[in-house]
């Protein structure tokens, strides 16, 4: 049983390996390459159309820092709250908001 699975695996891998073709890409019969872009000097070839632009695969930068530097202090790096009461309201503010007295107009009232 194991040998039949091994042969099946080998045949499947050979079939997958043989289905790739190594030939130049050409348009289908009766078709042509896309028309020349307005600002291009020449019509791009199939290789030009398949080439990746430089920003599609940027260079990798492994070294993030050239030399060790101390970090700047961050004013927003605050410790977690101690769990005390909520901060008091600023002076001069109403503790309870006023209800909106300009509601919908009631006819006849």
Q: Write down the overall geometry.
A: elongated
**What's the total helix number?**
2
Radius of gyration: 36 Å
Query: pLDDT under 50 segments (min length 5)?
Result: none
Order of helices and strands: HH
The helix content is 10-25%
Alpha-beta content class = mainly alpha
Give the integer mean of the pLDDT values: 74
Number of strands: 0
End-to-end Cα distance, whole Å, is: 93 Å
The biggest beta sheet, please? none
**Beta-strand residue fraction:** under 5%
Your description of this structure?
The protein is an all-alpha fold and about 110 residues long. It has 2 helices and no strands.
Q: How are the elements arranged and paired?
A:
Elements: H1 2-18, H2 46-50
